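Aim 2, interim progress: modelling of the FE2/S2 (inorganic) cluster-bound target.
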Amino acid sequence: MKSVVRLFVCTAQKDEIGKDVARALKVEVKKQGLKSLFSGGDKHKIRVQTCNCLDLCKHCKKGPGAALVVYPEGPVYGDVKPRDAADIVQHLSEGKPVKRLLLD
Ligand code: FES
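Predicted structure of the complex, ligand included:
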């Protein structure tokens, strides 16, 4: 069975940053040809989804960007801006997190 890697992007901010991040991630997934991903011999589909508050608000409401979670294996990112989308999608293919965006 094909599993799914989901990128949940918080869109509960007052501005549109979360929606902009989600849009940029979708564009980047397409651009990098990563609708599917092979990892550990398994094939995964990649989905970018918006969601409500992830309880990481200081990285949404007080920071300049949005919080997002890569599900199911992590990582958790904060203060993500649309310009970070390329690095985040590249991390999915390489399995290396984007250190500058990582939350504890
Ligand atoms: S508003 Fe984004 S995590 Fe709470």
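Strands lie at 3-10, 36-39, 42-51, 66-71, 76-80. The pocket of FE2/S2 (inorganic) cluster is lined by residues 10, 12-13, 53-57, 60-61, 67 (CB under 6 Å).
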